[in-house]
């Protein structure tokens, strides 16, 4: 599974970083980015949950 954050859509709500800090971090401007492109199998469920719970639907999982 691959994951990415659309930085045009992220509004810095931080739900993703609270749910899964192994994948998502906030940059100096307060917006999220994914620190991995390829999600480890054991983190796939939480990555999907982060995508679903992001208030602005900025997280894409493929
Ligand atoms: Fe941004 Fe959504 Fe995370 S708005 S900080 S990608 S919860």
Short characterization:
The chain is α+β, with helices and mostly antiparallel strands and 62 residues long.
Structure overview:
- This protein is α+β, with helices and mostly antiparallel strands and 62 residues long.
- It has one domain: Alpha-Beta Plaits (2-Layer Sandwich), CATH 3.30.70.20.
- 24% of the residues lie in helices and 19% in strands.
- It is built from two helices and four strands; from the N terminus they run βαββαβ.
- The strands form two sheets. The chain has a two-stranded antiparallel sheet with strand order 1-4. Strands 2-3 form a two-stranded antiparallel sheet.
- Strand 2 (24-26) and strand 3 (32-34) form a beta hairpin.
- It is globular, with a radius of gyration of 10 Å.
How does the overall form come out from the CA principal axes?
Answer: globular
Topology as a string of helices (H) and strands (E) = EHEEHE
| DSSP strand count | 4
Total number of helices: 2
Structural class: alpha+beta
Q: Report the major sheet.
A: 2 strands, antiparallel
CATH third-tier fold name: Alpha-Beta Plaits
- Give the spatial strand order of the biggest sheet: 1-4
Which helices and strands, and how do they pair?
Elements: E1 3-5, H1 15-19, E2 24-26, E3 32-34, H2 44-53, E4 59-61
Antiparallel strand pairs: 1-4, 2-3
The structure holds FE3-S4 cluster.
The site of FE3-S4 cluster has 14 residues, from helix 1.
Notable features of this structure?
62 residues, alpha+beta, Alpha-Beta Plaits, two-stranded antiparallel ribbon, 2 helices, 24% helix, 19% strand, binds FE3-S4 cluster
């Amino acid at each position: 599974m691959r994951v990415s954050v659309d930085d045009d859509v992220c509004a810095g709500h931080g739900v993703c970083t609270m749910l899964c800090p192994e994948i998502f971090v906030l940059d100096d401007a307060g917006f999220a980015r994914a620190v991995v492109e390829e999600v480890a199998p054991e983190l796939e469920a939480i990555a999907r949950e982060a995508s679903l719970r992001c208030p602005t639907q900025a997280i894409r999982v493929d």
